[in-house]
Write a structure and sequence with these properties.
- By secondary structure, this protein is α/β, with parallel strands linked by helices.
- It folds into three domains: 217 residues, Rossmann fold (3-Layer(aba) Sandwich), CATH 3.40.50.150; 106 residues, no CATH class; 212 residues, Vaccinia Virus protein VP39 (Rossmann fold, 3-Layer(aba) Sandwich), CATH 3.40.50.
- Strands 4-3-2-5-6-9-8 form a seven-stranded mixed β-sheet, with helices on both faces. A seven-stranded mixed β-sheet has the order 16-15-14-17-18-21-20.
- Strand 8 and strand 9 form a beta hairpin.
- The protein is elongated, with a radius of gyration of 29 Å.
- The two termini are 55 Å apart.
Length: 602
């Protein structure tokens, strides 16, 4: 008896977590977007190796040819290794007669480098550790050589403070700069590590912004290296747009997003790039990252609750704050106005129905809650005498829904769980017109499948809730399960709507509004991509650094739970397996070398 009671209590407090079979996929650049990337980064097409690692030799030759630097000059490289292995300058020195300054602090490599320099006239060799101040600065080291201030090429590769070394490099202005960056970081993110970070290269955007301040422009990205030329040379290159995200795309990005219960979900590459393990048969491969590894809340705390049962300060602070200046093609945002809606949907819907000439229509509201709080249908029924079918599954919310519409003959209130297998039957039972005017779906989960299941009903307008933590380039569809609560991405909903004959006409903070294509001319609107219409306010990005840490960029809060994610919450590898910089218990996030970052996501 006692054992059974304990079992029931545990099942009630900690319900078993269902297994899920979701669809998740990062959409790679294609079509015009891919053409744009290739056109702007056309110099990568000249990639070829003599001794370089990722085609840098060929790119360097083409850049020098383009700016007219075809005669022998000076070059600088650090860490230079032995002067040949993975070298970006060996070809210039050995095959084109350039003079060079090599810097390499590793003694084993330096001995080989000295031998190389002894055999090559006009080369200078130093075993210094390059820094950014005093005698260790690059300016100070080069001052010990006859190199001119206006020399030709420099290659910076020290696996960490490259950013600070270039920033402090002021007395010399090479024509071309090749500098390493962390290619696992999305090009929209400006990440600069702390100065004492050994294995944390900066992001491409951070270097782009530094280059701008120093009078340099980005012209090519290849392998882990970015190429910059002095600003006066940029017009010589056929580059229409040299912003980082217009030249570079992270093929192997690791992405995450949130379910409504606080579960974190993975998309993209799920492995450590710099941590390896051999299996029982001795086969060595990257350490895989599983969904369990990235959770910041234990299973028992990842429980879905309907939105009306609690407050989320994070959502309240964001509601209606989508920045129209960042999405100028989302023109209907200018009509945002709340009567009972949350993000201005009432005003947008009023404008749409006025333009469509629909005065007294019929709406179906699935997930109607209490009929008023955050409702997209109350204004239409109460203030514009629409008729409607309002469906709510939660018992307490349904009781409030009935009270809201007590005595109002325009609304039918139905206590039912929206089921994609039986939705059309439910609509038929309540005599919903096949061509009704507004469908609104907000059930925090199976919204996608409810819209997908409609075959015989074609509403003029549909407004559907989606998951605002998912990037526009991710197709995510939760499994068709009314007990699952993850939602769908805007991309997935938009693709579904297109197949069903609808066009995206407006997006608020977490609602997408679609209009049937045959009605679109009445709105006088053109079709636009979701990137032109929306940016996810709670988008999350995760990236790795060489020492085995992972970094979170973007939204660092579990939105529904108002839970602030801390640095250690998010680390996948245990402390002892995270690289060169050991992290002490008492160190702050900044002291740990987390660095500073900003992004274009907000």
């Amino acid at each position: 008896m006692i054992a059974n009671l304990k079992r029931k209590l545990l099942q009630r407090v900690y319900p078993p977590q269902p297994s899920h079979n979701h669809t998740v996929e990062i959409i790679r650049p294609h079509g015009e977007r891919l053409k744009e990337l290739r056109a702007n980064n056309y110099l990568a097409g000249y990639a070829g190796n003599v001794t370089s690692q990722g085609g840098e030799d060929g790119v360097i030759q083409q850049i020098l040819k383009t700016i007219g630097l075809t005669t022998a000059n000076w070059c600088v490289e650090f860490g230079a290794c032995n002067g040949k292995v993975d070298s970006n300058t060996w070809n210039l020195v050995k095959n084109h007669g350039w003079k060079a300054v090599y810097i390499e602090p590793n003694q084993a490599f330096f001995e080989q480098l000295k031998q190389h320099c002894n055999e090559t006239p006009g080369t200078w060799c130093f075993d210094d550790l390059v820094g950014w101040e005093g005698e260790s600065s690059l300016d100070a080291i080069l001052a010990r050589t006859p190199i001119s201030a206006d020399f030709g090429f420099i290659s910076i590769d020290v696996d960490g403070p490259d950013y600070y070394i270039w920033e402090a490099f002021e007395k010399y202005r090479p024509h071309v700069v090749c500098i390493e960056f962390n290619r696992l970081i999305n090009p929209k993110i400006s990440f600069v590590p702390t100065k004492d970070s050994i294995l944390r290269p900066s992001s491409l955007r951070a270097l782009y912004e530094l280059g701008k301040r120093k009078g340099y422009e980005l012209v090519c990205v290849v392998n882990w290296n970015a190429f910059f030329v002095r600003s006066e040379h940029l017009p010589k290159f056929a580059i229409k747009d040299n912003h980082p995200e217009k030249l570079f795309y992270v093929d192997d990005e690791m992405r995450i997003f949130q379910g409504y219960d606080g579960t974190l979900l993975l998309a993209g590459v799920a492995a450590h790039f710099w941590r390896f393990q051999s299996d029982s048969e001795g086969v060595v491969s990257s350490v895989k990252i599983s969904q369990r590894d990235i959770q910041v809340l234990p299973d028992g705390l990842r429980i879905f609750r309907p939105r009306h049962t609690y407050r989320s300060l994070t959502l309240e602070e964001q509601a209606g704050k989508l920045d129209r200046t960042r999405v100028p093609k989302n023109i209907l945002l200018q009509h945002r106005r709340n009567v009972t809606s949350e993000n201005g949907e009432d005003g947008i819907l009023d404008h749409i129905f006025n333009a469509l000439g629909i005065k007294q229509g019929f709406c179906v509201d699935i997930g109607a809650c209490d009929g008023k709080k955050w409702s997209n249908s109350w204004n239409l029924i109460a203030n514009h005498t629409w008729r409607g079918l309002l469906i709510e599954a939660d018992k307490e919310a349904f009781a409030q829904l009935q009270a809201t519409y007590k005595g109002n003959g325009l609304a039918q209130c139905v206590h039912a769980r929206a089921d994609s297998q039986a939705l059309e039957k439910l609509l038929a039972q309540h005599t919903v017109p096949q061509k009704f005017d507004l469908l609104t779906i907000d059930i925090e989960g199976n919204d996608y499948h409810l819209f997908a299941c409609l075959k015989n009903y074609t509403p003029s307008v549909a407004i559907i809730d989606f998951n605002p933590s998912i990037g526009n380039d991710i197709r995510f569809i939760q499994e068709n399960n009314d007990q699952a609560h993850f939602g769908a991405s805007l991309r997935a909903l938009s693709e579904l709507a297109t197949k069903k004959g609808y066009t995206l006409v407006a997006v608020t903070d977490w609602n997408a509004i679609f209009v049937r294509k045959d009605l679109l001319p009445r709105l006088g609107m053109a079709e636009h991509s979701i990137n032109e219409m929306y940016y996810p306010p709670f988008e999350m990005h995760m990236f790795q650094t060489l020492e085995g840490c992972v970094h979170l960029e973007g939204c660092a809060t579990l939105v529904r739970q108002d839970y602030k994610i801390e640095w250690e919450d998010f680390q996948i590898l245990p402390r002892q397996l995270r690289g060169a910089n050991r992290i002490r218990e008492d160190e702050s996030q900044e002291e740990r070398g987390f660095g500073t970052s900003k992004s274009l996501f907000y």
